[in-house]
């Protein structure tokens, strides 16, 4: 780190007053809003389960399930869900709406069980698209192009190709008719490193062509969420508690960016960050109401959540 770079860093006390901004030009990111049911008809929340062991607290998982109106398993993610629900029988009523992928990882007994409960299968055999890609395409078609019959599409890649064309057509009118979608991804972060990087890569690529879809990635190995912060002015609304300072990392996976922050232990101003250079890692949240981030390009931010996080959420009761 150069002296010039160091001069752009400010060390703050452990708690600073940083109110929720009223400026409409600032993009508001509210992680906890992903975990409560949405009453906005123009916005849908979806839970997407990938093929990694589920190690979430059951009350937390119940909140995730009940706050989302569409439940998708990507191929072997269905195996993970059934394994998890058999360990915690109260969750056996958590039945996914769809299972999608090339279905090579889906166990026969898992398939038979969920189909008997009403789950729909959609095979897409192409190896060009990942199971995450296929899931995102399915979600977008179900929410924004409901007139399309996915079962008239072939079992190779017609779903992805059709969704791509429809999304490109919608872009010409600036996505004016598209519903906003929030996708909570379980199983995309943690575990194998290459799978984690694949999730990051596909999330960036999806957001570049579908800016109406936002993602929250839950780490399967550590109590934290990862969000993609878009270019511009942003405020992550996440009220501090008395349980100590939360760890925060800002990671410019998409390339070098210049950032200005407020609400971190080590805030920066017009500071260049890149994978091969300076990085703001192992930072801490000091802003009482959240963190302000202005960035010249897309940026991933990981923030620890408090345990148990469910104490902050409206009690949803048993999974329904």
The CATH topology assignment is Rossmann fold
Largest sheet: number of strands, sense, barrel closure: 10 strands, mixed
Structural class by helix and strand composition: alpha/beta
As for the number of domains, it is: 1
First-to-last CA distance: 52 Å
Which term fits the overall shape? globular
Number of helices: 7
Mean of the pLDDT scores? 91
Helix content: 10-25%
Proper CATH architecture: 3-Layer(aba) Sandwich
- Taking pLDDT < 50 over at least 5 consecutive residues as the criterion, the unreliable ranges are 310-318
How many E strands?
17
Query: Could you spell the SSE succession in H and E letters?
Result: HEEEHEHEHEHHEHEEEEEEEEEE
The radius of gyration computed from the alpha-carbon positions, rounded to a whole number of angstroms, is 20 Å
In CATH, the homologous superfamily goes by the name Thiamin pyrophosphokinase, catalytic domain
| Biggest sheet: strand arrangement | 6-5-4-3-7-8-9-17-11-15
CATH class: Alpha Beta
Approximately what portion of the residues adopt beta-strand conformation? 25-35%
In short:
The protein has 320 residues and is an alpha/beta fold. Helix content is 25%, strand content 28%.
């Amino acid at each position: 780190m150069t002296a010039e770079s160091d001069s752009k860093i400010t060390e703050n006390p452990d708690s600073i007053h940083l109110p929720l901004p009223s400026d409409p030009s600032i993009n508001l990111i509210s992680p906890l809003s992903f975990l409560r049911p949405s009453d906005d008809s123009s916005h849908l929340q979806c839970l997407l389960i990938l093929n990694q062991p589920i190690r979430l607290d059951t009350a937390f998982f119940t909140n995730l399930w009940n706050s989302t109106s569409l439940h998708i398993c990507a191929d072997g993610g269905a195996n993970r869900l059934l394994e998890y629900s058999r360990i915690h029988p109260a969750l056996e009523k958590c039945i996914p709406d769809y299972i999608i992928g090339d279905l090579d990882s889906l166990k026969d007994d898992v398939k038979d069980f969920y189909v008997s409960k009403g789950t729909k299968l959609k095979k897409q055999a192409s190896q060009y698209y990942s199971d995450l890609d296929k899931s995102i395409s399915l979600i977008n078609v179900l929410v924004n192009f409901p007139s399309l019959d996915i079962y008239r599409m072939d079992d190779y890649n017609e779903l992805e190709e059709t969704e791509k064309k429809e999304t490109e057509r919608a872009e010409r009118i600036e996505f004016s008719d598209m519903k906003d979608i929030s996708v909570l991804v379980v199983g995309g972060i943690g575990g194998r490193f290459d799978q984690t990087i694949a999730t990051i890569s596909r999330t960036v690529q999806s957001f570049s062509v579908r800016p109406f879809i936002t993602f929250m990635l839950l780490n399967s190995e550590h109590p934290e969420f990862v969000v993609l912060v878009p270019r511009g002015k942003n405020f992550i609304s996440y009220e501090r508690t008395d349980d100590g300072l939360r760890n925060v990392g800002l990671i410019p996976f998409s390339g070098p960016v210049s950032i200005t922050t407020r609400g971190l232990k080590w805030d920066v101003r017009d500071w260049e960050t890149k994978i091969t250079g300076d990085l703001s890692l192992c930072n801490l949240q000091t802003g009482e109401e959240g963190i302000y981030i202005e960035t010249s390009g897309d940026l991933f931010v990981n923030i620890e959540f408090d345990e148990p996080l469910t104490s902050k959420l409206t009690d949803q009761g048993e999974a329904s």
